[in-house]
Amino acid sequence: GNKSDLQDNLVISEEQIKVVAKELGFHYILTSALTGEHVNEAFLYIAYRFIEKM
């Protein structure tokens, strides 16, 4: 998810995100384009997953 810098405005809690992601077998990373928080980690995860599929 993006906009992790706006935690006070979240409509769904991070705990709810964790539960749904686990149920669906998804990986999630909360990011913020404004602060750059976890943006590199998100792109690295995507790149590693892409390489795994090759």
Explain the overall architecture.
With 54 residues, the chain is mostly helical. The chain has one domain (4-53). Helix content is 48%, strand content 0%. It starts with 13 loop residues before the first helix and ends with a helix. 2% of the residues are buried. The mean pLDDT is 88.
Give the averaged pLDDT, no decimals.
88
The geometry reads as: flat
Total of DSSP H or I helical runs spanning 4+ residues: 2
Structural class: mainly alpha
Number of domains: 1
The radius of gyration over CA amounts to 13 Å
- Sketch the topology as an H/E string, one letter per element: HH
Largest sheet: none
Question: Layout of helices and strands, plus pairs?
Answer:
Layout: H1 14-24, H2 39-53
InterPro entries: P-loop_NTPase, Small_GTPase
Pfam family, one: Ras
GO molecular function, one term: GTP binding
List keywords for this structure.
about 55 residues; mainly alpha; Small_GTPase
How would you briefly describe this protein structure?
The chain is mainly alpha-helical. The chain has one domain (4-53).
